[in-house]
Amino acid sequence: xxxxxxxxxxxxxxxxxxxxxxxxxxxxxxxxxxxxxxxxxxxxxxxxxxxxxxxxxxxxxxxxxxxxxxxxxxxxxxxxxxxxxxxxxxxxxxxxxxxxx
Length: 101
Hints:
By secondary structure, the protein is an all-alpha fold. The chain has one domain (16-86). It is 68% helix and 0% strand. The longest helix is centred in the C-terminal third of the chain and has 23 residues, at 70-92.
C-alpha cells in the first residue's frame, strides 16, 4: 500500500523510547499534586495508563530510582491525600457561636 509508508514516516518519529521516561517523571509530579491538591488526580492518571500497559511495563523496568514502585507511590499518595484533604475540610466547617438575641 502506498499510503502506509507515508503514515509510517509521519507517525514513526521514534519517540516511543522516551515515553517511559515521561511517564516516570510525570508520576512524581502527579503524586505531589495528589498528595497536596486533589487526591482524584492519582486515580485519573493510573486509569489513563491502564490501556497502554506496554509503556507502563517499560517504565517499571527502567533502571531509575523507584521506577518499579511508581504505582505503589501513587496509591500511597492518594491515600495520604485523602487523609490530608479530609482534615482540611473538617477544619473549615467549624461552627461558631450562635447569635444572641
